[in-house]
Amino acid sequence: MGLKIVFLTLGDVSKIATMKRAFGMANPLHEMGWDISIILMNCSENKKRASLECNDWIKLYYFESGSAFSEVYQKTKILKKIQPDYIYICSFSIRNLIPKIFLRFKPKIIVEHSELRSGILELDYLKKIIAYGFEVFSIWYADMIVTASNYLYNYFKKLIYKINNDISLDYSPYAYNAEILRNEFFQFDNLPTRCPAKNIFLYMGTMTRNYGLFTILEAAKMLKNECFCFEVIMIGRGRHIEEAKNYVDLYNLSDVITFVGYVSEDKLMSYFYIADAFIAPVNNTIQDIARCPSKIYMYLPFKKPILTCKVGEPYQIFGESGNYFDNENPSTLTELFQKVIDNKCNTMDIDPALHSWERRSIDFNFWVVKNTDIR
């Protein structure tokens, strides 16, 4: 029997993206001989995603949503039953902070960091100090650390050096799951396409101002002054969606902008298929530079223009050949819209296979085996 690993997750996958790694790497790691278990919250969306992405050999253990103490207690109980060689914590928070002393066995702890909470501008000073304390504590708590962005890799490399701790560090961004690219996931009924001659721009994300929502709307408004042969499809929910809909009504943009709300993973691929280009805004802030925009990796297999910003992980992926706009200047996005319509966007010479969960799993397996005896 191969090595046992448990992915310890948090919340609902439709709201917390960190669970995507567990679903994405489960099957490939199993094919390499690993024994895979996932601990996840008992909710319909998690069960649906698990059934879509995990084969029958992946063991799923559900906990009930509750207080932090309740969730830690349930997870600890499950871990003691499984007794894995590795515990992979997909989101390092108080709800995933398992007291090692209560486990009664000694697994290797792998902690993933996919964002820099201490760099979030909206947090007050005290919350930033607490977030920084958690980042430092993770180095003492974990045996190995995975970072989902190049910025985080360098950040934790410096932090580890300051603390003088002997811990293995890996850079492993998110990826796309080839399982959900199968034909049965393409459903074209009721998709909001009005005219085959229209260029379709697709945005998927949280509907908030700081995620570039109104940059997209203003760019569409400017483009409508020049032509009508386009449609912007907006997928997602968020606290500013009603404000955005009012903006669309105010400027008579309902013929070129469509809000479709939340779309489940099994239907997303159909929208990706009909899109002519994807919109992926990223702010030039520490918060955004540090995070890993998982959606960009989902777009790569479709080999269509990805309109994004020249910061952080998008620049790591595309380099100087990317199709970039300034998220604070809507006219730069309007220019990219026009380039797509005129077929003048930069083509991407990127092999999507390099950014699949299969590739990430191969690299992860090599890293773990190489560093098994590090401590």
From TrEMBL:
Alphabetical UniProt keywords: Transferase
PANTHER family: GLYCOSYLTRANSFERASE WBBK-RELATED (PTHR46401)
Pfam families assigned to the protein according to its UniProt record, in alphabetical order: Glycos_transf_1 (PF00534)
InterPro entries given in the database record: Glyco_trans_1
Biological process, per Gene Ontology: lipopolysaccharide biosynthetic process
Signal sequence region: none
Ranges where the Glycosyl transferase family domain occurs: 198-344
An MF annotation (GO) of this entry: glycosyltransferase activity
Species of provenance: Salmonirosea aquatica
Keyword flag Transferase: yes
Protein name: Glycosyltransferase
